[in-house]
Every structure is written in structure tokens, then in C-alpha cells.
Amino acid sequence: MPDHICTSCGHVDSDSIIEPKPEEKKDKFPRKIIRDNREFDNTYHPGVDNADLVHEVHRVRVSHCKPYPTLSQIETIQGRSNPKLLCHNCGWNTGHELSAGGYTSRLKVAYLRDNSAIWDLGPNGPWMLRDENNNSTDVWKKDYAAQRFIREKKPSIPLVEMHKYGGLNDKFHFTIMSRAKGSTIKAIWDTLTREQMSDVLQDLREHIKQWRQITSPQMQRVDGSELRDAYIGNCTGFGCIKTGHNEEEWLENLTPAMRKSMLWDLWIMNKGWNADQTVLGSWIIEVDEKVAQLKANFPRGGPYVLTHGDLHTENIFISDDNPEKKFKVSAIIDWELAGFFPWWVERFRAELPESAWEILGDDTDFHHPGYSEKKDLKDIWKPVGDVKDKWFEGGNHGWSKHGLHQANRWYRKPFCACKPYAQEYRDSSLGWEQEHMDVFDIDSSDSEDDQKEEDKRFSRRERQFFRWFKEISNHN
């Protein structure tokens, strides 16, 4: 009986595979073998390791690598005439694998994000391919729109070249984009001299000042649609809470999580499950007053400036491949969170080396006309931080819900019997809306049933609190 059947290709492992007879590699070969022996050249077969190949010259093995198990003649014929899928991502099948001559794909997955990916078009080639969904949940869709906008408004800002393919109603879009020249700041920053660091940062400063000259009378994306919060209400990393068009609307959307945070503190410290309605009502009044004070202290005022929203050392490429032979910014990537925010968001959100801010400094043109880093950032750091902290305590991923909160999961059959890695699909990657919810039905994810307490997402006291919080939120 066979040991098992490969679930991908259907081949059995012990009955149909012919084990080769033991063969020792010869130390001496006939003249024609020595004459015609060549090393494998992987120039056109990127990723193929010569050490893994069994090498024969005139049907005589010359490599140290011993022969692998082979298929029977019948299975070889069947594999070619009735191909079976080997890779569900690229479509590679047994017919392809058994084809004479050998083909190696020059397209390789370089980066994954949910149900989208970036492919290398050739090893370190000048172009890459972005394969993405065309729906409202795809963040890369916003990246293309933002870069197109900036390219039109400020063509001097270094961006990668992009060519997008796909219609408005197509389910998928494909974007050919140039590979960013040079290296990320993170990759080589510690190898630069102080002078080279200064060259990079002065150049970066000029580019930031350029895009910050673009303003809007209201908070919005570059296409006029509603922003996702890149700084405070951002539990997913890709913008979560909607901001509305000004600080008042933004704060209103942040309020449920702030209330939840402070009410939970009172609930758990004072055994809210035993409290009467009078006590519970007093907590609501107390918390609402504190939230109102947090909102009153929050900085306000436009115009709102174009903000990258995710400026860090892996999103900035630098190179000295220029006429001056100085390190300069060669590309700024990942604009999916970009939009018109209050002037201070870029400074608070950016993650640059501390030495960067010594050079970028407190130039008023860099931040916003009429503002300076030394005075105004110091004044608003605490009120913004207070709102951010309280929102996170009540709105973070563990205390909120997104869509169905991945209630549904599907698993493919294992990739192959000898490599039993199984793909998992989640409802969050099917194009379904994943709206952030601070008020939700606890029973939809953690009901009172026979499930063990330690297996539940929330504890018993937390579930009691969430039900009460939903009740009072619906009454407001």
C-alpha cells in the first residue's frame, strides 16, 4: 500500500516512484565528458541553485548531488497528457514540470499584503508588478491616486514611475511600477558620514516643504473622499477611524473609544456589575465631562496640509547615483495614508532618526506658516497625546471589532503532501468592508455558552461591561 498521496499532484510516494540504483560518482571520465562539461548558468534561471542539481554529461553523472527518485514511464506520460496542478498561485502543473528544456519564472513574489502582492519582474530588474484588488478595502488603490496627484502638482518630488491597468468595474488592477533606485535610509543610514546624512536630510526637507505647500480648506484625501485616521484612531496600521472634514468631526468619531476607556476603569475598579443605576449614571456624567475637556484642549485650525502619513526610514530611498555624486532622496514610496491633515500630524507620525530632526529643525516653512516646532509642538504635544492614549485604551484592536472580526476562515488543502503548508483565507481579505466598531454586540463574538472561559475572547466581567456600554451608547 502507498504511504500517502500528494494532495497537490496526486502522486503516491512509494508504489509509483522508482528509487534509483545506488551509483557512485566517477572520479575519471572519458575525454568527451571532460570536453563538454559545463557549469550550470542560472543567468536565465534566477533562483535555481546549482548545488541542488543532478548534472549529467552524455548520460553520465558528474555532480556530487545524487539522483533523485523518479517517476515511472507511465506516470510521466500521464503527467504530460493529463496535467495536474502543482501551484495554485502561478498555475504550474505536471506538464510544465516535465517539459523538456526547462522553464524558470522570472516573476517572483517580493511582498504580500493580505490578498495583494508585489512581484519582481526579473531579479533586481527595473520594474515590479503590483497585483491588487479593486475594492474599497484595498489600501494600495489610494497609493496610486495620491502619487498621481503629487506628480501633477509637484513633479520635482521623487516618486516611482507607475502605469496602472484595469477598468473602473474590474475586480483586479495591475500596476507596473519602477523599482526605487538606491537603498532605504534604514538599510544604510549607519554607514553614512555626518556630511552625507546632512545631504540626505536637507534634500528630504526640501521635498517635504514642497508637498506641504499644497493645502485644503478641509480634511480629505487627494480625490476629495473621506480620510482614514493615520495617527490617533489607527489600530490596523492602515488608517482606521474616519476623520470627517475637520477636528470636530474627527473628535466625534474618536469619542466612543475614549468613553469606553474611562468607563471601563471606573467599572472594574468599583465593581460596576454590583453598582446601581444612580452610581452608573454618575460615572457617565463624570466621564462625559472628562471627554469634553479632552476635546476642548485638542488643537484646531486649518488650512490642512498635504501629509504623507507614514514617513519612515523604509519608505525613503536614497542614492548617490547622480551628477553631484551626493546622497539624495531617490524615491518616497507608500502614499496610501496620504491626505490633508492638520499641520502637526506629519511631525508626530513620522519615524525618522533623532539626528534627522536636528537638521530638519524648526523652520516655520517646514511645519506651517505661523508655527514653529519649539513653541507650538510643545504646546500641543500633551493635548494630542491625551486623546491618543485614551482612544487607544478603548479602541485598540483587542477592544474593538472590524467587520465580522474574522469570524469566518477557510483553509485550502495542503500545498503538497511532502510540504503540508495550508493556505488560510479570512473574511477580512474577501473585499468585505471592515469598519472599525467600538460599540458592538458582544454575543456575536463571545456569547454565554458552554465554551470554556479561557477560550473566550473577553472575560465574564468584560462581557458584562460591553453589554452595558452598548446599552448606554444606544441611548445617547
TrEMBL record:
Q: Which PANTHER family match?
A: AMINOGLYCOSIDE PHOSPHOTRANSFERASE DOMAIN-CONTAINING PROTEIN, AMINOGLYCOSIDE PHOSPHOTRANSFERASE-RELATED-RELATED
Q: Where is the Aminoglycoside phosphotransferase domain?
A: 114-342
User: Which Pfam families did the record assign?
Assistant: APH
> What SUPFAM superfamilies does the database record attribute to this sequence?
Protein kinase-like (PK-like)
Recorded superkingdom: Eukaryota
Q: What is this protein called?
A: Aminoglycoside phosphotransferase domain-containing protein
> Which species is listed as the source?
Phialocephala subalpina
